[in-house]
Structures are given as structure tokens and as C-alpha cells.
Amino acid sequence: MKILLVRSSSGYVDVRNALYNIQETGLAKAFNRKGHQCDVVFWGGKKEEVIEMEYDEGKTFKVFYLKAYDILKNGVYKGLKELSNKYDIVHCGGYDQINSWILAKSIPEKLVVYNGSYYSDFNTGYNKKCKVVDKLFLPRFKKNNIFFDTKSNLSADFLKQRGLTNVYPVGVGIDLERLKAKELLESPLSDKVSSLKQNDKKIIMYVGRIEPRRNTVFLFDTFKKIYESDKNTRLLIVGRGEKEYKDKCFEHAKEIGIEDAIIYEEYIDQKYLPLVYSLADVFLLPTIYEIFGMVMLEAMYFGVPVVTTHNGGSDMLIENGKSGVIVDNFNVDEWKDKTVRILNDESLKSKIIENAKTKIENEFTWEALVDKFISVYEKRLG
Predict the structure, then answer these.
(1) For the chain, which terminal residue's Cβ has fewer other Cβ atoms within 10 angstroms, N or C?
(2) Are 13 and 347 in contact (CB under 8 A)?
(3) What angle do CA 180, 183, 187 make, to 5 degrees?
């Protein structure tokens, strides 16, 4: 089978210098290892380029940087229809992308749309956008019998509620080749990372943007309760954020008396993140809305128990209490109790770590997910 993976959003992706887990390249390698021909399309802006990506010591696949317009963060490509004629399946995302709507007219018989978004009261901008998309895009998707695979069950439900019938949840994978790459395993801790190690401290970790969606103020309030119960804990945060909101969060941390117990790094090179995960005892992600959350995949793979909300990723990844903990509310005391229990119960912690790592390795690598994608493609072609 010849498969073309298309990133529908605009913005340049430097595949040559990226360290790991660009979804399209990770999935492309998995397809090619299975004996299919799979190539990738990325937004090239005003320039067009074709490069060969090497994997498995000499094997390659193509990455096409096509000329494209940027329309409201949507990539609208020149020459994509002509390129698509060389492939059996064109796989692009998502439900709300202009590119998906265009391809639904030009190549409906070979198109599969990969969707991640779902409804959330918090996601007001996307909800308004979908009112427009439902009127403009949905009729074509239905008329032309477009197939969808989704990153989560929540996303599948979101599409089915719109009357779409060919919808199949498959999930998101992780690229173990990059996580196990030589430069990751052999890199010494940088001075920056080394300075994070606190002797005999219990480390609560958060990686990601500091923003309202990720509920950073609540994270600080939760850590305050944890810190009050055990002064030996520290909160490690790695991530950027808009200055106004970030300043507000850290001013709040100062007001509630946890400023000195927070270790903050705005940025750490991704090649060192596996080593940073090794410092953590628990990973907290009190996100209000999450399409999937690659940080959960990473934390689970690297042996850090995850405590999070019910979201797109946790719904697929976590069996509550066994491979992680889902807290379906924002009660500070409950979050504190769940976290402290993991910190203090080595048996529970070890069980969660083992179950989580097994879950990721067996079900949520790109290699593990390939057959699910192929099943959808065969239904589309069939």
C-alpha cells in the first residue's frame, strides 16, 4: 500500500534537526517497516523541497515540503492533488482543517482524516469555529462518505455526534527509535539538568506550557498542600508561557509560600528530557483540555506515575489506579491525597510504573498502532 501522510496545519517542521516524536515521521517509519511505502508532506511556505529521511541504517522515505498558503493556521497546499494521485491512501488531519475539506472533494475515495479535537466547555474558540465548520465542511464529509480515524475515544464521540459514521479511534504513538537514540542514552547531564537534582528530595514534575488550559494556578495550589504535608518535596516545572500569565502564576506561588520549593526551567533541550524524567517521582498534569498529551506518553514510558484529569490522552492510556491516576475534578485535597499516596507507597508506585511502561510499549508505539491504521485504510479502499 502507498500511503501519504499530510500535516494539515501551517508552520515549518525541521525534520532534519528534530530529536524525536514528530508524529508523521514516526508513523511513516512504522509503515515502511511493515512493508508499505509511506511518505510525508509538510508545510513549505514559499519554498518547495524534497528530502530523503534515513532510518534503520540506510533505508529512506521522502519528506515533501510543498508550497502552501497559511490561512488561519491551516496549510493549503499547491500541487497536493497531483502528488496524491501517486498514492493509495492520503491521511491528513483534522476535522476543522481547510485542507481536509478540499481533499474531501478532490480525492474522497482515498482520503482518511486523522482528528484529535473534541468538545470542551473550556475550548470556547474551537467550539465557535466548529459551528462554522459544521455548516461548511460537514455536508461534504457526509456526502462523500469520508473516513476518520481519531486520536482518542473522546474525539471519535465528537465526530459521531455530528452524524459521521465511518469513525475509528486509533490513538497516538511514540517513536521509540528517537527515545532510545544513542545521543539520548549517552548524553551526560548538562549543568542545567544536573542542578535540578535535589539530594533526598521527592520531585513532583510538570512539563509543558504554562497556560490557563494546563491549569498552572491549580497545580501550585495542589503542590502547596503536598508541601505542607511533606517539606521534603519539590515541584519541578519545565516549560514556557506567556509572560503575563506566567508572572501571575509565580506571584501566586510567592503569595502562598511555595516559591522556594519550585525548581523552574523555561527550556531544556529535548535530548535531555529522558534524563530529567528520571529525576521525578510523580508527574502532575491537571489539564482542563488535552487532545492527547505527549508528555503523558513520555512520563509513562520513562517510569514516572501520572496523575491527571479525564482527557483525550488519559482516556486511552490510563486504567485508573493501575497504570496511572485520573482525578475527574479539581478538588485540591483529593489531588494532594492521590499524589501523596503514590509518593509514600512504594508498592503502588512500582505497580503503576510497571503497568504504564508495559501499556506504552505494547499498545502506544507507532509500530503497535500501525495495524489499526491499516485496518481503517482497508475499510476506506474496500
Answers:
(1) C
(2) no
(3) 110
Question: In whole angstroms, what separates CA 5 from the centre of its chain?
Answer: 17
- How far apart CA 110 and CA 131 sit, in angstroms, is 27
pLDDT of 20 strictly over 70: no
State how far the Cα of 226 lies from the Cα of 116, in Å rounded to an integer. Answer: 33
Note the Cα 231 to chain centre separation in Å.
33
The confidence score (pLDDT) of residue 176 equals: 81
Q: Please, which residues have CB within 8 angstroms of residue 163's CB and are 6 or more apart in sequence?
A: 138, 142
Instruction: Tell me how far apart the alpha carbons of residues 96 and 113 are, in angstroms, rounded to a whole number.
Output: 10
- What's the pTM? 0.93
